[in-house]
User: Which sequence fits this backbone?
């Protein structure tokens, strides 16, 4: 038990410390990004007027809301993207150990990639990659 | 108590890096962009504030600090305010894993995270969340279209980008940015031109192809011309940040330039050997220096009245000096090499921006899905095959 926790505390710090730094960067970075906004709040004028806060639409009064229903035309691309993005995530660990594992790793990834390439060719032939 | 020290160190590094982003990438980046745009379009660019207009962006920043923040009445206020901060912080987080050079035996990097390049690509895509938030929360049609285009661009170019990163990770056998540079130092050549022995220089086509795929995808990912559809000023006015004024607008600029320099830095690390000093034979360095002198002489003789005479001459002198120094066996600090490579790539991106027209959306999607993605996959497979056959 004690030995185990000693191993954990001995091996954890580097990784934990890395993400501790990232967390500090996110928090302090946010503060530093907000700082100029605070300066603006102190220095800049603030005058609200009904005309000034109208949504910009090339000088005419805005026509309806921008939050309307409309057709997001690239949803097919988004579907294909999900497939390939997951594939790429699988490739990352493979890429790291590839040269230690030798030919077997290459053949296995070749099969995996070829199946996906066939999928891409199928989507292409079906016209899923055409902008309609 | 040691964690308090680490906390203070982390805060100090955040402030340092944020200042670097604000001053070097955003302020000097915008200035360089305007100057280069000027020269390419045969005009002078900023000239009056400070020597050669050097303080123009500083003056602009001071001006922006005094500008009113206008929030459109119909906007989603919380999201509207959060978006520029998200974009700026995402650009800052990119730089956590970028090594600048070495000092003694220490590597000048904030944290050498073991999954560095994966972390970088994750943080780079966070930017798009901020852009999409900005586009949606403005409740403005131009902004919404800009945000949506940015999202479609992300899902199309994320894959070629990741394949470029994977290529370097595969050749180096590690995901750590420091590890990738060290692998190049160890094999004695940039991944752009060299694969690990016994393949060596014969692997140059693979490296060049991977680098081109990565750079094109990176340009698209940071929304720069010819892929600047999200902010196309001639059709969408300014796209997703059309409703933003004053410092909020400046934060978007900071995020954009931070991201662009970040991508160039990653490309430097993966393909140009990061902080490593190039090893050329002395006579090649002499050739570099002589070439620079010849270029300078030709320009002096033929284009004495050109607008770009001073910058080109200073560049030639600089190149000649570096070539001479290296040919007599001198050394430059590693951080200087890193910055030289980084700025060269950034200059290249700016050159591209002011040279090419914007693509149409369908051309943009075609380029990614029908050209870059198959090319990237095949290049990955071919390089894997070559490395396997090479017995490593």
Assistant:
């Amino acid at each position: 038990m004690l030995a185990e926790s000693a191993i954990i505390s001995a091996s954890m710090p580097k990784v934990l410390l890395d993400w501790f730094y990232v967390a500090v960067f996110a928090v302090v970075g946010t503060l530093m990004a907000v700082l100029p906004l605070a300066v603006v709040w102190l220095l800049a004028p603030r005058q609200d007027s009904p005309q000034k806060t109208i949504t910009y639409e090339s000088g005419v009064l805005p026509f309806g809301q921008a939050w309307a229903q409309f057709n997001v035309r690239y949803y097919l691309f988004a579907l294909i993207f999900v497939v390939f993005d997951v594939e790429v995530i699988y490739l990352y660990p493979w890429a790291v150990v590839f040269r230690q594992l030798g030919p077997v790793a290459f053949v296995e990834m070749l099969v995996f990639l070829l199946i996906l390439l066939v999928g891409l060719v199928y989507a292409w032939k079906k016209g899923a990659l055409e902008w309609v | 108590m040691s964690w308090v020290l680490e906390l203070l160190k982390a805060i100090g590094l955040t402030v340092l890096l944020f200042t670097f982003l604000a001053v070097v990438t955003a302020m000097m980046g915008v200035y360089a962009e305007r100057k280069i745009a000027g020269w390419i379009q045969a005009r002078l660019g900023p000239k009056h504030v400070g020597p050669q207009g050097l303080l123009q962006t500083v003056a602009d920043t001071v001006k922006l600090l005094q500008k009113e923040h206008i929030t459109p009445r119909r906007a989603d206020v919380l999201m509207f305010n959060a978006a520029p901060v998200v974009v700026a912080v995402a650009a800052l987080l990119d730089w956590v894993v970028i090594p600048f050079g070495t000092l003694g035996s220490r590597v000048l990097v904030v944290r050498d995270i073991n999954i560095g390049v994966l972390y970088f690509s994750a943080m780079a895509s966070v930017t798009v969340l901020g852009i999409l938030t900005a586009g949606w929360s403005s409740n403005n049609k131009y902004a919404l279209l800009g945000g949506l285009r940015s999202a479609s661009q992300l899902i199309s170019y994320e894959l070629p980008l990741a394949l470029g990163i994977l290529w370097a990770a595969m050749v180096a056998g590690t995901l750590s940015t420091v590890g990738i540079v060290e692998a190049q130092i160890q094999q004695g050549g940039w991944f752009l031109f060299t694969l690990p022995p016994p393949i060596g220089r014969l692997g140059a086509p693979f490296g060049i192809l991977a680098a081109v795929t990565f750079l094109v995808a990176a340009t698209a990912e940071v929304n720069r011309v010819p892929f600047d559809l999200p902010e196309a000023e001639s059709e969408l006015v300014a796209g997703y940040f059309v409703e933003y004024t004053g410092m909020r607008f400046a934060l978007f600029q900071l995020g954009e330039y931070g991201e662009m320099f970040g991508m160039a830095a990653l490309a430097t690390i993966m393909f140009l050997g990061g902080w490593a000093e190039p090893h050329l034979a002395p006579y090649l360095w002499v050739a570099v220096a002589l070439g620079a002198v010849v270029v300078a002489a030709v320009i002096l003789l033929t284009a004495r009245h050109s607008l770009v005479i001073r910058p080109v001459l200073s560049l030639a002198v600089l190149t000649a000096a570096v070539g001479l120094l290296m040919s007599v066996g001198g050394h430059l600090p590693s951080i200087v090499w890193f910055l030289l490579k980084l700025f060269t790539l950034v200059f290249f991106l700016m050159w591209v921006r002011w040279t090419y027209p914007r693509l149409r959306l369908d051309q943009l999607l075609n380029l990614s899905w029908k050209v870059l993605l198959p090319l990237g996959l095949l290049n990955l497979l071919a390089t894997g095959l070559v490395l396997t056959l090479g017995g490593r």
